[in-house]
Amino acid sequence: MMRWRQRLPLSLVFAALALAYAALAAALSLLLSRWLQGAWAALLAVALLAPLLLYHVRRAFAPMNALFRALAGSVASYRDGDFGFGVAWQGGGALGTLVAAHNALGDALREQRLALVQRELLLDTMVQNTPVAMLLVDPSRRVVHANLAARKLLGDGRKLEGQSFDALLARTPAALREAFARGGDGMFTLGEADDIDAGNEEIYHLARRHFRLNGRRHELVLLRQLTAELRRQEVQTWKKVIRVISHELNNSLAPIASLAHSGAELLRRGQLERLPTALATIEERARHLEGFIRDYARFAKLPAPRREPVPWARFLAQLRSQVAFALDADPGDASIRIDAAQLEQALLNLLRNAHESGSRPEDVALALRRVPGAWRIDVLDRGSGMNEAVLANALLPFYSTKRHGTGLGLALAREIAEAHGGRIALLNRTGGGLCVSLVLPD
């Protein structure tokens, strides 16, 4: 009986029950009318059949009620994150469609949950095994999460979750505390640079990021060890320096040695008329070598800037007396606190590069304008510009695309700008050429 009730439409079941009980009530009323009046006989028949009717109605509704309870239970399980339940229903119709849709939803949620768990496991594995120390700090300054590298660096391998970050920081070396006190990102060194055991010196980069998690402000702290990378770059830089210096020394010393030998032969033969030419060439190569070494020494020993107020009008006039350029500026009687000699050297290098870029002399220009809290200086040309690879490396020391370049002009300009608290950027201009932009604070 259960099976046919599940398969028949509910309206047909109720119609059959209604017809059956109407016929039964009519027959019972006719039988009771022998002893009672007609109305009382009908009421007594209905009263006698009501419990039986209620029983069959409940029997008819029982599978549907069980189905609804099963659906409610599975929905509660879904709400709790348990997607392992399904609902079985042998009937068809609207209820069969509802059950099929519910089971399909459960399958989709189960697959999504499994994929999410797999991604969480993968992400946790990556976070735990990355060499970068990572800590997540909540608004109450408690450590919410710390990976293995953070535990090793800050807790001797012990678990850090739940500890006060400020108390944890108080137990760290002074260099790390100072890096946090400065705020923002930065680099610091653990260990003594002059320690006999050079392996004790470790260089780290500190990065701090803030974001909102569940409506609350959290801080992500990243501590990355840079010692090996910096040492590798240092070795590569020294190798490049040695190659550049060796190249310049050979270019100068080889002709000097050859001309000295030739001069001795000319002197021995008494051909004194050719001797001044050889000596002049030796002097020219020696002076070139002297200037080359002097430029390297200047870059290596760049002193801290001695900043003092300098009127822009006077500074630009002094600069134009040494190199030609079109000026796009009207600073009036405004001034800026700079080391005039250092900034002049930086701009001379940039303007000479602009003249050597293949640009027409009249297209080399310097633009000066005020920006919030700073001054922006643009050195412009209409040369060939730079490709992406050159733009990415042009500011590095000893990097040069010129045949006889030292690779120090742009690097020196960058050192001077950053020593003044400013920055430098290079970008290609629309229509060809390069713009070298310096931004210097007041």
TrEMBL record:
Pfam families: HATPase_c, PAS_8. The keyword Phosphoprotein applies. GO terms for molecular function: ATP binding; phosphorelay response regulator activity; phosphorelay sensor kinase activity; protein kinase activator activity. It is a multi-pass membrane protein. The keyword ATP-binding applies. InterPro entries: BphY/WalK/GraS-like (IPR050351), HATPase_C_sf (IPR036890), HATPase_dom (IPR003594), His_kinase_dom (IPR005467), HisK_dim/P_dom (IPR003661), HisK_dim/P_sf (IPR036097), PAS (IPR000014), PAS-like_dom_sf (IPR035965). Residues 244-442 form the Histidine kinase domain. It is found in: Membrane. Keywords: ATP-binding, Kinase, Membrane, Nucleotide-binding, Phosphoprotein, Transferase, Transmembrane, Transmembrane helix, Two-component regulatory system. It comes from the Bacteria. GO terms for cellular component: membrane. It catalyses: ATP + protein L-histidine = ADP + protein N-phospho-L-histidine. GO terms for biological process: osmosensory signaling via phosphorelay pathway. The chain crosses the membrane at residues 35-55. CDD domains: HATPase (cd00075), HisKA (cd00082). Its EC number is 2.7.13.3. This is histidine kinase. It comes from Cognatiluteimonas weifangensis.
